[in-house]
Amino acid sequence: MFDLWIMFTVIRFVLTLNIEEEISEIRMAVKQQQMEIRQLQSFNHILIKENHSFKTAIRQLEEDNLLMRKDINLTIGSIPSTEHSEFKHDESLKRKRNTTGESSLQNSRRAAAVGSLDHVAFYAYMSKDDPSLQKHNQLVFDVVKINIGNGYLNNTGVFVAPSSGTYVFAWTLYTGNHGATYYDLMVNGEVYGSTSGETDDVPGDFDSDSGTVVVSLNTGDNVYFRSVIQTTAFILGKRSAKTSFSGWKLY
Fold first, then answer.
1. Residue 205 falls within a domain, yes or no?
2. Residue 70: what pLDDT?
3. How confident is the model at residue 247 (pLDDT cuts 50, 70, 90)?
4. Are residues 237 and 125 in the same domain?
5. CB count, 10 Å around CB of 123?
6. How far apart are CA 215 and CA 177, in angstroms?
7. Reported pTM
8. CB 163, CB 120: distance < 8 Å
9. Domain boundary among 59, 94, 116
10. Concatenated DSSP letters for the chain?
């Protein structure tokens, strides 16, 4: 019986301690919230003062604007009728000149934009060998030397026509030794041109194959190279001779 009483006393003591700790934490939280509320009230008071100052400044500006309008009306009213007519005429001429100038500027900008789309040209080459032998491997000519019109994308190897017209595309592909390569020039996913290379099984035997096509493209059409079938040789890029791809707009 005595043991039960001791156990009950200990449990009650522990519960009392826990309750006191929770009460202490609650008091601290309430105190913290009260401090934050006072800070917010102080900040709100500052905002109210600033808002009042802004309203006063706005009213002053409105009054100044009204006075300026009255002064302008009085000045115009004091001008003789002939001078007043000349004043209106001068203002009309100024507006006409401004309108004409803006129109000329817009026409110049439109002409420049059209001109920039009419001038399209790019040249890029590979800086490293392409080790892929897979079918439909797409070649990426990563080094761009010129890209007028920004039509060529060196991260994908795809040329996207920035404007409609007739284009010329030229290429040179170098095939490594001990095998053969077969590549197509693709226009919107359709075969438009082809090239192949084959080398003997002797050291240092490389094959160079070039081609040129003329293509009619619409804005947004894409042109790129991909392998026809699985190849047995690399396309070379780390050589003095460059595996390259170029194109330009004729008209």
1. yes
2. 73
3. very high
4. yes
5. 19
6. 32
7. 0.52
8. yes
9. 116
10. -HHHHHHHHHHHHHHHHHHHHHHHHHHHHHHHHHHHHHHHHHHHHHHHHHHHHHHHHHHHHHHHHHHHHHHHHHHHHHS-HHHHHHHHHHHHHHHHHHHHHHHHHHHHHHHHHHHHHH--EEEEE-SS-B---STTPBP---EEEEEETS-EETTTTEEE-SS-EEEEEEEEEEEPSSSEEEEEEEETTEEEEEEEEE--SSTT--EEEEEEEEEEE-TT-EEEEEESS--SSPBP-SSSS--EEEEEE--
Q: By residue range, what is the domain housing residue 88?
A: 79-116
CB 209 within 8 A of CB 199: no
124 and 228 in a single domain? The answer is yes
pLDDT at 52 over 60: yes
